[in-house]
């Protein structure tokens, strides 16, 4: 019953919390992040806080700022959770999913290592970082130099400074399966596809930028 109430709340928030539309694309893509900022992600397992550093990856920091400001992470299902990675970023709004897919950010050099609790953008190839981010759940330093579809390494953008214990509670029963085999279906059909085919996934109910003290 508790899970059902939370799910209904997520659906409600998706309609009322985000007034922007893809028609605001020119404005959205001009949003620039401060030198550093913190994002609190509230989830079914409790909250965690990501601190973003623009010096690590300027374009990625700006994109993450844009994503949070437009509500992209509200109602996200954590579709990948393993001992190595946690990944999310495909939102409830299909229009925005398509928008981000068409506006990938250009690749940047790796200036920090993919260690435990460090956050980087996922990518499907060169200049293809869009909306999905992953959290390193262990030291994955091979990602610093790995060649992947024309990309040389995964540049970190920030680190989890609180709540890693909650992230480690995310449901791992589906492992890498959804990430490797079902992303196109999620993009096309939204959360309904995950609810129907992969019950029990954890949810990011919302993400908010914290005000500095």
Name the poorly predicted regions: 7-19
**What is the mean predicted local confidence, pLDDT?**
90
Radius of gyration: 16 Å
CATH topology: Cyclophilin
- First and last CA, distance: 37 Å
CATH C-level name: Mainly Beta
Strand order, sheet with most strands: 3-11-1-2-10-6-7-5-4
Structural class: alpha+beta
- Number of domain modules: 1
Shape: globular
How many strand units? 11
Largest beta-sheet characterization: 9 strands, antiparallel
Give the DSSP E fraction (strand runs of 2 or more residues).
15-25%
Determine the number of helices (DSSP H or I, runs of at least 4 residues). Answer: 8
Give the % helix. Answer: 25-40%
Q: Write the CATH homologous superfamily.
A: Cyclophilin-like
CATH architecture: Beta Barrel
> H/E element string?
HHEEHEEEHEEEEEHHHHE
Structure description:
By secondary structure, this protein is α+β, with helices and mostly antiparallel strands. It has a single domain (2-18, 31-209), classed as Cyclophilin-like (Cyclophilin). Helix content is 29%, strand content 23%. It is built from eight helices and eleven strands. The chain has helices at residues 2-16, 25-28, 58-69, 94-101, 164-167, 177-181, 183-189, 191-197, and strands at residues 36-43, 48-53, 76-77, 80-81, 85-88, 118-121, 133-136, 147-148, 151-152, 156-162, 203-209. The strands form two sheets. A nine-stranded antiparallel beta sheet has the order 3-11-1-2-10-6-7-5-4, sandwiched between helices. The protein has a two-stranded antiparallel sheet with strand order 8-9. Strand 8 and strand 9 (151-152) form a beta hairpin. The longest helix has 15 residues, at 2-16. The protein is globular and about 40 Å long. This is peptidylprolyl isomerase. Residues 1-19 form the signal peptide. Residues 39-177 form the PPIase cyclophilin-type domain.
